[in-house]
Amino acid sequence: MTKILISADMEGATGVTWPADCLPGTPEWQRCRPMFTSDVNAAIAGFLDGGADEVIVNEAHMTMRNLLLEQLDDRATLLTGRHKALSMVEGVQHGDIDGIAFVGYHTGAGDEGVLAHTYLGNSLTGVFVDGVRASEGLLNSLVAAEYGTPVVLVTGDDRTVADAARWAPDAVGAAVKDYVSRYAAVCRTPARTAADIRAAAARAAALAVRHAPAPPRERRVEIEFDAEHLAGAATVVPGVEQTGPCRVAYRAPSMYEGIRCFKAVTTVVSAAVEEWYG
């Protein structure tokens, strides 16, 4: 039995290039939801084509209520909604996931890429793990590794697929658009991207083989903000220390704990952002 977990984010989905395209409640978001669902459906179909037995999709974007369940491939199941212990990779901690796919992903804060950011749309200018600049993909891959689950597929813009070569070198990549600027891309049509993602997922299914969990080890996480008051706000989270005017750091005994602390920091910082000046 091969079980696949799809972590589905929206900024890297087909056709999405602008904040409103993935901001829940906007007309643009409503237009892009079917394209997002199409990307996920293509991955589901591809994994099943490749011999996977079960696919579960974890919603990973903002409200985590963006995919259209009524249009989802009914051979899969959907975990939708917020407040999950591992957020974007919820489910990997159960130890029965053979491979994880990052669908609709994007590059991290401070990097080139369509809608590049890390957790927060703005305010964070860089996240670093053990000195290495980290995207959401890198952060989540480190968590998955602690449960012996390899990243087997990554979809998003071309910069995201290139970034994934750093932290998931064996994964199959499928680019759905080519970066022009943070808010512009050369986009392929849903029919073309669905075919590309399905073919990539079919190849990726063979990579879904659980291995020995990576032994948890201490990680140093640093976060850089665009304003000094946000660094101060972050220090209310136990263990987080201000290391510069706009920078904080903390140590975690594992990436499981590291990502949970990171989630706490971003939640606190979000509440400290003011409307006009951040």
Question: What would your notes on this structure say?
Answer:
With 278 residues, the protein is of the alpha/beta class. The protein has helices at residues 27-49, 136-145, 158-167, 190-204, 228-234, 255-272; strands at 3-8, 54-59, 77-79, 99-105, 124-129, 132-133, 151-157, 172-181, 184-187, 219-225, 241-244, 247-252. The chain has a seven-stranded mixed β-sheet, with helices on both faces. Helix 1 (27-49) runs parallel beside helix 4 (190-204) and helix 5 (228-234) packs across helix 6. The longest helix has 23 residues, at 27-49. The relative contact order is 0.16. The mean pLDDT is 98.
Which class best fits the helix and strand makeup? alpha/beta
Share of β-strand residues: 15-25%
User: How far apart are the termini?
Assistant: 49 Å
What's the pLDDT, averaged over the residues? 98
Number of helices in the DSSP assignment: 6
Main sheet strand line-up: 3-2-1-4-7-8-9
Shape: globular
Helix and strand sequence: EHEEEEEHEHEEHEHEEH
Radius of gyration: 18 Å
Counting DSSP E segments of at least 2 residues, the number of strands comes to: 12
Low-confidence stretches: none
How would you characterize the largest beta sheet?
7 strands, mixed
Helix content: 25-40%
